[in-house]
């Protein structure tokens, strides 16, 4: 089942279950997907966004909520931080399993080998391969320095 369809099915189920927190979070996901669809149509892609773009949207939403939760905790607003953490759990239900450190290292090595990377100039190619294969499964902010170290 396509990711977009899974989100819609999840929202319908949450409505039946009267789970208001889950419904509101899934509505936010749908709104973000529709916004990206509109932008894609403006760029000439009439079919809208695919699963890779939806995964990127979900990943961005998780990062935004993690940052918000951290700020709320620093401001001693634990109720709001808890709400953000609940939303993260709902969003993560639709993300693929995160790779562990060993799997990330193996993926980085495989990507470097695939593009025959030998210097820092190949970092963009390596990151492109990783983003194509592992969107939503790894934190590219943390992977970037790892790729840089391996190519140096």
TrEMBL record:
<dbReference type="GO" id="GO:0016884">
    <property type="term" value="F:carbon-nitrogen ligase activity, with glutamine as amido-N-donor"/>
</dbReference>
<protein>
    <recommendedName>
        <fullName>Glutamyl-tRNA(Gln) amidotransferase subunit E</fullName>
    </recommendedName>
</protein>
<dbReference type="Pfam" id="PF09424">
    <property type="entry name" value="YqeY"/>
</dbReference>
<dbReference type="InterPro" id="IPR042184">
    <property type="entry name" value="YqeY/Aim41_N"/>
</dbReference>
<dbReference type="InterPro" id="IPR003789">
    <property type="entry name" value="Asn/Gln_tRNA_amidoTrase-B-like"/>
</dbReference>
<dbReference type="InterPro" id="IPR023168">
    <property type="entry name" value="GatB_Yqey_C_2"/>
</dbReference>
<dbReference type="InterPro" id="IPR019004">
    <property type="entry name" value="YqeY/Aim41"/>
</dbReference>
């Amino acid at each position: 089942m396509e990711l977009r369809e899974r989100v819609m099915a999840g929202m319908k189920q949450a409505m039946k279950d009267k789970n208001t927190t889950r419904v509101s979070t899934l509505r936010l996901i749908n709104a973000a997907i529709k916004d990206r669809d509109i932008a894609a149509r403006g760029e000439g892609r009439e079919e809208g966004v695919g699963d890779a773009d939806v995964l990127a949207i979900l990943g961005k939403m998780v990062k935004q909520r993690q940052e918000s939760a951290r700020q709320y905790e620093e401001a001693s607003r634990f109720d709001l931080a808890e709400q953000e953490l609940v939303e993260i759990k709902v969003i993560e239900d639709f993300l693929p399993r995160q790779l562990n450190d060993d799997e990330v290292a193996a993926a980085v090595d495989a990507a470097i080998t695939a593009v025959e990377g030998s210097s820092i100039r190949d970092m963009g190619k390596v990151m492109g391969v990783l983003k194509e294969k592992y969107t939503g499964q790894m934190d590219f902010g943390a992977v970037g320095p790892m790729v840089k170290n391996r190519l140096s």
